[in-house]
Amino acid sequence: MKLLEGKPGWTLLFVLGLGFPFVATNDYMLTVMSTAYIFALATVGLNLITGYTGQFNLAHGGFMAVGAYTVGILTVDHQVPFWLAFIASGLVVAVLGALVGLVSLRLRGHYFSIFTLCVGYIMFLVIEKWEGLTHGVADIIGIPAPAGFGFVSFENPRALYYLVFAFLVLGVWLMQRIVDSLLGRTFMAIRNSDGLAQSLGINLMRNKVLAFVLSVVYAGLAGGLYAGAVRFLGPDLAGVEHTFDMTMYMLVGGLGTLAGPLLGALIVPWLTQYLQFLQAYRFVVFGPILILLVIFLPNGIVGLYQALKVRRAHRPASTGGVGARQSQPAHGDRHA
Question: According to the UniProt entry, where is the signal peptide (predicted)?
Fold first, then answer.
């Protein structure tokens, strides 16, 4: 499904993103929005494997943490330039994703999700316990900001905001190209029915692994950006709660749509900012909200918009049909 591709809606979102720093009253607002963009990029990746291919990966937050720690370890412990470490974060996550995908995607449905939940927990334990590599609970601190170009320094919150925004725009554009291609239709065919897709000659394992790798690469690169933006890392980044957060973003915005995860990832973090006084009861508050969304708004904001759009499009036709039926007997009586 598509929403607003090639239409003024996307232009409006782009213009709002460009103009946000001019209305932000302080650097904290820029930091919150930059972080939201980073998690939006990771959520767009999760939506590829979950919304478009039908496989719910509960290790997605772990892959994001692997990407972040790749940047942190290379830059802090080995003095590798940030952008080389950033590229390495995508490559490391791609290789790890291919290995995990080859094993996990032999399972289906809940079994796949449970397996990836275990994989994500293993990632968390490795990051927390392998102090010689990851610094363990001591955290990695002093990660350098992304290296600037010319007179541009990404030490500045505004410049960093635009850097993250540029990566989000590029990531959404690439995802649109993937979704609209034959490969994207292949993923959706697998989501709709494994058996039907296989009968059409689709190689299920190859395409599932490809979708999985593309998905986690988004998470890994988002993690690399997160490391450069926040500049310190702790094991909590690999916690499954971040995957649940991204799942909430997809459900709020609209699972299996391009704009849905993006909107959800931008709306929910700001909502949490305004409800910080409930932080200790976060899951108590958002749990029921999520349940109500699934029951009464299963297709999210984008799905609601599309349903209203279809309803409006059919309303004139229905009115015209009733009028035609009402006028037809009168026409016949006149000839009689």
Answer: none
